[in-house]
C-alpha cells in the first residue's frame, strides 16, 4: 500500500508539471486565465464571442432563408392544406404592388386575370441607436390569382375620372408555385400559363420552370398539363412570350440563367388545345433566316386571306369614315385586297426584345479586371420585326420597318387590341451613356405605339391633347438626357441618373477632402474625371408641366384590353440605384379621342418610399454645392500649403 501511494503521488506531480508547462506556454503567447481577466477584458471577450455566434447564426439563417428548394417545399405543404376554393370579393388591389406579372383578358367574362409577379423592397436595419443603418434588398414572389373587373362606364364623372375596378382574390387548390417573368394567354375559357422563374429573397439564386398550367375561369380550378422537353415542349425558361390562335398556344423565345452562363432562345413551339400535345414550329439557332435569340419581345398573331377577307375589308372601309387615320385604313384595305380570294394564312409577328452578349476580351484588357469582374457583358435591345407562317411553310420573314416605329427600348409592355387589329406597345426604358459610360441616364418612357398587323405599319398612339406634338427622336432624347445630367435642365420623374463606381468614389472623395488633397486622393484611389463636373441623381427635380395626364414612365408593367379600354397596372421605376415597384392603375381610352385617366393612385406606402428616395437622391447635390463654395474660399490656403 505504501509503494502504491508513492507511485500515485509521483503521477500527480508529473500531471501537475504538465499543466504548469501549458500555463507557461500560454503566458508566452499572451494568453491569460479567465479567472485573471479584468472586468473590461472579460466584457470585450464576451462581446467578441457573442458577435461571432451572431454572425454564424445570421449566416446560417440567411442560407436557410435563400434556400429555394426549402422555400418551395414549405409553400407546397401550405398549399396542400387547402381543401376548397376560397374567393375574397372586393379585396382591393394586390398588396404589395408587383411587376413581371400577367394580366390576361377573358373576353367571355369581360374581365382580366392577374397572376404571379414579384416585389422588391428595401429594408433598413440598425443594431443600436446611433449606429449606421444597413440596407438589405428582399424579393417576394407570388402565386396569387386576382380577377380584375373594370368599372362600368356609368362610373365615369364627366369623362375626367373613372371608377375604381373590382378586385377579387381567388385562393385555389393545387395552384402553381410562385413565379414571375412567365407568359400567359386566354383561350376557350382557360388562362394558360407557361414557365417563369422563382427568385430567392437575396436575388442570388433562381429556379426556372418548364411547367404548363391552365386556369378554369368558371370553376376557378388549376390543372397542370404535360410539358418540358420529355413531352416535346420547350425547356425551362422565363421571359418567353405567347399568343393563342383558334387551335394552338404558341410560344417564342425566352432565357435561362444557369449561374455560369445565360442562354437565350429563338425557338418556337405550339401546343394543340384539343390534342394536348406539343410540337416544334421553328427550331432555334443562329443565322439570318430567323430572329436572333431574345427574351421579353412583343408578339401578336394575324389571319389574312380566305373567304372572310371581303367582309373584313368592308368593315375597315366603314371605320375609315368614322375618323380613323386615312393612311392606316387605306393600308388595311390594300392588304386585304392582296390576300383576298387566296388561302388563309396565319402569321406570328415578333418585335423587339432583349439579350446579353458576352464580349471577348481584347488585347488592351487588363487580366486583373477579368479576375475581379469576369467577362464583359453587353446588353442588346432589339428593334427588328419578323413574321412566321405558322400553318404554311413555317419559315421566318423579316418585316420592313414602315410608318413611325418606336425607338429601341427594354422592359416595355404590350397587348393586342383585337377590335382594330393592332399591337399596342407602352413604356420601357432607354439607357443613355454619358461621359463615356461613367454616367448612365435612364429614360423611363411613357409613350405608346401601335403596330397594325394587317398593314404592317407603325403609328404613335396620339392622345387627344397632343395632336400637334412631335414624336421625340433618339437624338433629341439623348440630348435631353445629357442636359439633365449636366444640370442644364431640371430633371423629371422619367429620367434617372446613375453614376459609375468611379464617379461614386469621386463623390465620396470630394465630400471628405479639400483642394490639392482631392487630387491626391483621386490619384491614390485611381479615380478619373473632373471633380467640378460630378453629377448627382436629380430624380425629383420639378416636373415640367404636361399637356395631359399620363402614367409615370416604367418597365415590366402589366397591361390588358377589356372592351375598348387599355388598363395598366404596376411596374418598376428607378430612383438612384433603388428599384421601386408601383401599384397604381390607369385606363387608356382607345377610341378616336384617346386619353389616359387615373383609376387608382399609388398607395401611401409607395408614395412615402418614392418621397424618401427622392429626398436622398437630392442630398448629394446640396452637399456638392456646399463643397464647391468652401473650395473657392480655401484655394489660396491650399496653394500655400502645396508650395
Notes on the structure:
By secondary structure, this protein is α+β, with helices and mostly antiparallel strands. Helices cover 27% and strands 32% of the residues. The protein has 10 helices and 32 strands. Strands 1-7-6-3-2 form a 5-stranded antiparallel sheet, with no helix packed on it. Strands 8-9-12-13 form a 4-stranded antiparallel sheet, with no helix packed on it. Strands 14-15-16-17 form a 4-stranded antiparallel sheet, with no helix packed on it. It is globular and about 115 Å long. The model is unreliable at 12-35, 154-159, 307-341 and 524-546 (pLDDT under 50).
What ranges have pLDDT less than 50 throughout 5 or more consecutive residues?
12-35, 154-159, 307-341, 524-546
User: What's the Cα radius of gyration?
Assistant: 31 Å
Number of beta strands: 32
Strand content bin: 25-35%
Helix fraction bin? 25-40%
From the helix content, strand content and strand pairing, which structural class follows?
alpha+beta
What characteristic shape results from the CA principal axes? globular
| First-last Cα distance | 92 Å
Main sheet overview = 5 strands, antiparallel
Strand order in the largest sheet: 1-7-6-3-2
Put simply, the count of helices is 10
**Nearest-integer average pLDDT:** 76
Labels describing this entry:
single chain, alpha+beta, five-stranded antiparallel sheet, four-stranded antiparallel sheet, about 25% helix, globular
Amino acid at each position: 500500500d505504501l509503494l502504491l501511494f508513492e507511485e500515485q503521488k509521483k503521477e500527480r506531480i508529473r500531471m501537475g508539471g504538465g499543466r504548469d508547462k501549458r500555463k507557461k506556454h500560454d503566458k508566452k503567447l499572451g494568453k491569460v486565465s479567465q479567472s485573471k481577466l479584468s472586468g473590461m477584458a472579460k466584457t470585450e471577450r464576451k462581446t467578441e464571442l457573442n458577435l461571432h455566434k451572431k454572425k454564424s447564426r445570421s449566416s446560417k439563417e440567411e442560407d436557410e432563408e435563400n434556400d429555394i428548394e426549402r422555400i418551395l417545399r414549405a409553400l407546397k405543404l401550405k398549399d396542400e392544406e387547402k381543401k376548397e376554393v376560397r374567393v375574397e370579393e372586393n379585396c382591393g388591389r394586390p398588396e404589395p404592388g408587383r411587376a413581371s406579372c400577367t394580366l390576361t383578358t377573358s373576353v367571355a367574362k369581360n374581365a382580366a386575370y392577374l397572376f404571379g409577379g414579384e416585389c422588391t423592397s428595401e429594408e433598413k436595419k440598425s443594431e443600436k441607436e446611433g449606429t449606421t443603418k444597413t440596407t438589405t434588398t428582399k424579393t417576394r414572389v407570388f402565386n396569387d390569382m386576382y380577377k380584375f373587373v373594370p368599372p362600368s362606364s356609368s362610373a365615369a364623372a364627366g369623362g375626367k375620372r373613372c371608377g375604381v375596378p373590382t378586385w377579387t382574390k381567388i385562393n385555389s387548390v393545387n395552384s402553381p408555385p410562385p413565379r414571375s417573368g412567365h407568359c400567359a394567354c386566354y383561350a376557350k375559357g382557360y388562362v394558360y400559363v407557361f414557365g417563369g422563374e422563382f427568385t430567392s429573397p437575396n436575388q442570388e439564386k433562381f429556379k426556372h420552370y418548364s411547367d404548363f398550367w391552365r386556369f378554369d375561369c368558371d370553376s376557378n380550378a388549376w390543372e397542370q398539363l404535360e410539358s418540358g422537353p420529355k413531352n416535346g415542349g420547350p425547356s425551362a425558361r422565363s421571359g418567353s412570350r405567347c399568343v393563342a390562335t383558334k387551335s394552338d398556344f404558341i410560344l417564342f423565345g425566352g432565357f435561362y440563367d444557369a449561374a455560369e452562363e445565360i442562354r437565350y432562345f429563338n425557338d418556337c413551339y405550339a401546343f394543340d388545345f384539343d390534342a394536348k400535345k406539343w410540337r416544334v414550329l421553328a427550331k432555334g439557332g443562329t443565322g439570318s433566316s430567323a430572329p436572333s435569340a431574345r427574351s421579353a419581345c412583343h408578339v401578336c398573331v394575324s389571319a389574312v386571306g380566305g373567304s372572310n377577307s371581303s367582309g373584313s375589308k368592308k368593315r375597315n372601309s366603314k371605320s375609315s369614315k368614322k375618323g380613323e387615320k386615312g393612311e392606316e385604313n387605306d393600308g388595311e384595305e390594300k392588304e386585304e385586297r392582296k390576300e383576298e380570294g387566296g388561302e388563309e394564312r396565319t402569321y406570328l409577328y415578333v418585335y423587339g426584345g432583349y439579350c446579353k452578349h458576352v464580349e471577348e476580351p481584347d488585347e488592351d484588357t487588363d487580366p486583373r479586371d477579368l479576375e475581379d469582374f469576369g467577362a464583359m457583358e453587353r446588353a442588346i435591345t432589339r428593334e427588328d420585326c419578323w413574321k412566321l407562317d405558322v400553318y404554311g411553310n413555317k419559315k421566318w420573314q423579316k418585316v420592313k420597318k414602315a410608318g413611325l416605329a418606336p425607338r429601341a427600348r427594354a422592359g416595355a409592355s404590350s397587348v393586342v387590341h383585337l377590335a382594330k387589329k393592332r399591337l399596342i406597345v407602352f413604356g420601357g426604358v432607354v439607357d443613355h451613356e454619358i461621359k463615356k459610360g461613367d454616367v448612365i441616364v435612364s429614360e423611363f418612357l411613357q409613350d405608346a405605339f401601335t403596330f397594325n398587323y394587317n398593314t404592317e405599319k407603325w403609328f404613335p398612339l396620339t392622345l387627344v391633347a397632343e395632336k400637334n406634338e412631335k414624336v421625340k427622336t433618339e437624338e433629341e432624347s439623348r440630348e435631353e438626357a445629357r442636359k439633365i445630367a449636366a444640370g442644364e435642365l431640371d430633371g423629371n420623374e422619367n429620367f434617372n441618373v446613375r453614376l459609375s463606381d468611379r464617379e461614386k468614389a469621386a463623390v465620396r472623395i470630394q465630400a471628405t477632402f479639400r483642394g490639392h488633397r482631392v487630387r491626391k486622393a483621386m490619384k491614390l484611389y485611381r479615380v478619373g474625371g473632373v471633380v467640378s463636373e460630378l453629377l448627382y441623381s436629380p430624380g425629383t427635380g420639378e416636373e415640367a408641366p404636361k399637356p395631359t395626364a399620363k402614367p409615370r414612365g416604367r418597365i415590366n408593367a402589366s397591361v390588358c384590353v377589356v372592351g375598348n379600354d387599355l388598363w395598366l397596372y404596376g411596374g418598376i421605376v428607378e430612383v438612384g440605384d433603388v428599384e421601386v415597384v408601383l401599384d397604381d392603375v390607369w385606363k387608356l381610352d382607345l377610341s378616336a379621342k384617346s386619353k389616359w385617366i387615373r383609376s387608382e393612385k399609388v398607395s401611401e406606402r409607395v408614395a412615402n418610399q418614392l418621397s424618401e428616395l427622392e429626398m436622398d437622391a437630392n442630398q448629394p447635390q446640396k452637399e456638392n454645392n456646399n463643397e464647391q463654395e468652401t473650395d473657392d474660399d480655401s484655394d489660396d490656403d491650399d496653394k500655400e500649403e502645396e508650395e
